[in-house]
Amino acid sequence: MNLNQVTVATTDVARAIGFYSTLGLRLIVESIPRYARFECPDGESTFSIHRADQVAASQTVVYFECGDLDETVAALQRQGIIFTSPPADQPWLWREARLRDPDGNPICLFQAGDHRRHPPWRVA
What we know:
By secondary structure, the protein is of the alpha/beta class. It is 17% helix and 37% strand.
């Protein structure tokens, strides 16, 4: 089994396309005003957005891994992206920065290296 995609709701697909394109995702399906789908720049995962009349507050966080988190965050900030927390080392051995998309969906950009799948406490 392989994770194909994650889909989040948006009240404005065109606005969300701009936001997620700025993050570095590549638009591969554009069906405004109801749907869009992106490829992640690394790997084979995809990410999509679908139109909803309203977006409920979500506790689900979408994680995107970055090769150089600090450089990525600095570049996105220069483009006007606002972060709710700057890059910081976490006790689980990841470096993370947090933000929200225009609809309030929580996003974490992170850098974990081998610890993403192989932390020291991984179950054998």
